[in-house]
Design a protein that fits this description.
Layout: E1 10-14, E2 27-34, E3 37-42, E4 46-50, H1 51-57, E5 71-74, E6 78-88, E7 96-98, E8 103-106, H2 109-117, E9 124-134, H3 137-143, E10 147-151, H4 154-158, H5 165-171
Parallel strand pairs: 5-9
Antiparallel strand pairs: 1-2, 1-10, 2-3, 3-9, 4-5, 6-8, 6-9, 7-8
Length: about 190
């Protein structure tokens, strides 16, 4: 049986008219989407804390000093105390969801311990909280022109400066967000 992945492994780029402060000018990576709803993580809203702060709070010893400068992102307004690590899917961790063949999200402590030792995934992004949509809600928001769906590009996720991710994700489908109107309408 062929299972549809819906919008999993897509970026949801907030359109300029999306005024919700949780999502204004954001890019969300959709990690899971099915008939019961969707779950995503905002990838361009850094918090004022570092990964070193998170590790210290969790009493995980920081061995790799390069980790101390890594940013932590506000992944969304739901369960803001819960951590998520988006990473390349080359290794196996205790609690991972594979988004694609090359990308996964993990919520278990073991990945953070490995990152602290310098033994974690080659590329990762750490977020606190997530974005959640009820069944049909994300689809309705797309119909209302709140979101632009684009394919995921790992370089935007891991290599592009966070302040450029919104524009870069929209550009994947040829859209310049600065040329879009804040007004919505239907022809």
């Amino acid at each position: 049986m062929n299972q549809t992945r819906f919008l999993a492994n897509q970026f949801m780029v907030a359109m300029p008219q999306l005024a919700d402060p949780n999502f204004f000018h954001t890019v969300s990576l959709i990690c899971e989407h099915n008939e019961t709803g969707a779950m995503g993580i905002v990838i361009n809203r850094p918090l004022e804390i570092s990964l070193a702060d998170v590790l210290d709070h969790m009493e995980i010893e920081l061995i790799d000093s390069n980790v101390s400068r890594l940013m932590v992102y506000a992944g969304g307004p739901v369960e803001t105390e819960r951590g998520f690590v988006i990473h390349d899917a080359s290794d196996s961790w205790n609690s991972s969801l594979h988004i694609s063949e090359t990308l996964a999200v993990t919520t278990s402590r073991d990945i953070l311990e490995a990152i602290a030792r310098g033994e974690g995934p080659k590329r990762s992004l750490v977020a606190l909280g997530y974005a959640g949509w009820a069944a049909g809600q994300l689809e309705e928001e797309i119909v209302q022109n709140a979101w632009l769906s684009t394919p995921v590009e790992d370089t935007i996720l891991f290599d592009t400066d966070f302040e450029k991710r919104w524009e870069a994700a929209a550009a994947l489908v040829g859209v310049n967000v600065h040329l879009l109107s804040n007004e919505t309408g239907h022809a």
